[in-house]
Specification:
Helix content is 74%, strand content 0%. The protein is mainly alpha-helical.
């Protein structure tokens, strides 16, 4: 049963980040797994520097896009937010149903906490998500994508990042 979960999680390596395809016309953008790994590194550092619950943050980061291994990566323009949540919840519930009870409820709780955006950890993870996206957009810009093409990613991050340390890093990325 655990192997089924592992196989589904490994599939994140095959799911391309749709926003890069749609807005930058990239043929080989980063995968969701690439994105999650970069977020995990950022989350580890920020969490340790800012005295957050590092274990919870890392688990939340690793779980936050996991449903995309079953449903793909939908952008806000492709599907309503409500429908996306419903589809993701169904996929996530199906995925964790193969796990032992001892951890299934913990992972379900972390998933719900991220979606509700009420805890400090969930809020910082959402902002780390935007910070990672910005860093990746900047890398694509340096590889030849136009400033106009990446501007919407930068704007989204500027609107969504409020944590002082993340805001400082965001400004460094944008000035680079």
């Amino acid at each position: 049963m655990i192997l089924d979960f592992f196989k589904t999680a490994v599939n994140l390596k095959n799911i391309s980040r749709q926003g890069w395809i749609d807005k930058l016309s990239l043929k080989h953008p980063e995968s969701v797994a690439d994105h999650s790994y970069s977020m995990a590194i950022m989350g580890m550092i920020i969490s340790d520097l800012e005295n957050y619950n590092s274990e919870k943050i890392l688990k939340m980061i690793l779980l936050h896009d996991l449903a995309e291994s079953k449903i793909g990566d939908y952008t806000p323009n492709q599907i309503s937010k409500e429908n996306k949540i419903k589809i993701e919840n169904n996929a996530y519930d199906e995925m964790i149903s193969t796990l032992p009870e001892s951890i299934k409820s913990q992972y379900a709780q972390i998933w719900k906490e991220y979606q509700k955006q009420e805890s400090p950890e969930s809020k910082i993870v959402r902002q780390i998500d935007k910070l990672e996206m910005t860093l990746q957009a900047k890398m694509y810009q340096k590889e030849g994508s136009s400033k106009e093409a990446v501007d919407s990613f930068f704007k989204s991050a500027e609107d969504g990042i409020t944590h002082p340390k993340l805001k400082e890093i965001l400004n460094q990325i944008l000035q680079d």
